Amino acid sequence: PIYEDNAKWQNLEKAVIVVHGASVNPDDYYSYMTTTIEALGVSESTVLIAPDFKSSEVSSGDIYWSSLGYRDGKESSGTTKISSFEVLDILISRLSDKNFFPALNEIVITGQSSGGRFVHTYAAGNRSESLYPEIHFEYIVSESQYFYYPTDERIDEQTNNLYVPTNCNGLQFWPFGYELAPDYVSVLDKATFNDRFVSRSITYLLGNGSGSDSELNTTDCEAVVSGSSRYQRGENMYLYMDLKYPNHNHKKTIAQGISHNGSAIYTSPEFKALLAQLLNN
Questions:
Q1: 8 Å CB contact between 204 and 233
Q2: Weakest mean pLDDT among 6-10, 56-60, 129-133, 202-206
């Protein structure tokens, strides 16, 4: 339990929240991240949380998100309606309770694949970061193939320049654009959301391996125009930020030789170095 009676976690200064992908396997991600946190020697000072965004009602009354709705901040599908983004806000509010976590000063939120899609928009849309100015927030988007763009512009891979694709009506719709954003997000106007998106500390964790990627969407135009491969889509997103918003607060880390693989990327030397840097800031 996050809270225990009369417990005060004096030594817990950092928290890592890892969001699973479409396989809905939080236990695996808890295991991958435990391996890395222990390898870094920071397990005694770090809280690790791997939320389970269930895809169906396993037990009566379960909160669940059908059709992977959790990754876009949508409301749950059962009787109880709650945005998946609000679920994370609740977890963060508990971590921020000084009665239990008096020393906590940083929260790193990361997600792999569809979990990365979740983190990319949660980074800008969440209500937590502004509520707890004493806590430093970092967001790591790992191997997502889908990205939010503040404008309809994309990267032309032949020229590395910005252009506006034609005959693609999905560009402006959430989560690729702001239109039809879920209720949790739409309380912000688009300009405010985009300002937050540009200024929040987001790292793109990209695997540049050449292995097969059977889950890559090569059909929907809004996915196809973002890049020719999962790795290239991440590179294009980062280049877009450089060209469009030179003063952005986004970064990238490349895990060499790793294809679409949550275990490999979260235990890679590159991720370990990135996490060590963030936790030691």
A1: no
A2: 6-10
Global confidence as pTM = 0.97
Q: Enter the DSSP assignment of 74.
A: P
Query: Cα–Cα distance between 33 and 56 in angstroms, integer?
Result: 25
Backbone angles phi, psi at 264, to 5 degrees: -65, -40
Task: Specify the 3-state DSSP secondary structure of 270.
Answer: helix
* Cα–Cα dist 150/174, whole Å: 11
Determine contact, residues 8/99, Cβ cutoff 8 Å: yes
- Please provide the average confidence, as pLDDT, over all residues in the chain: 96
Average pLDDT for residues 81-88, to the nearest whole number?
A: 98
CA-wise closest residue to 18 among 5, 7, 34:
34
Rounded distance between C-alpha atoms, residue 237 and residue 275, angstroms? 21
User: CA triplet 36, 260, 119: central angle to 5 degrees?
Assistant: 70
- Find where tokens 């034609």 sit: 166
- How far apart CA 189 and CA 195 sit, in angstroms, is 10
CA distance 147 to 236: 10
CA-based nearest residue to 90, from 62, 120, 49: 49
Angle at 155 between CA 205 and CA 152, to 5 degrees: 100
Q: How confident is the model at residue 90 (pLDDT cuts 50, 70, 90)?
A: very high
Q: Sorting pLDDT into bands at 50, 70 and 90, what band is 204?
A: very high
Maximum pairwise Cα distance, the chain: 61
pLDDT attached to residue 78: 87
Rounded CA separation 54/76 (Å): 9
Give the contacts of 166 (CB within 8 A, at least 6 positions apart): none
H or E, element range at 111: strand 106-112
Residue 114 phi/psi, 5-degree rounding, is -65, -30
Joined together, the tokens standing for residue 253 give 């880390």
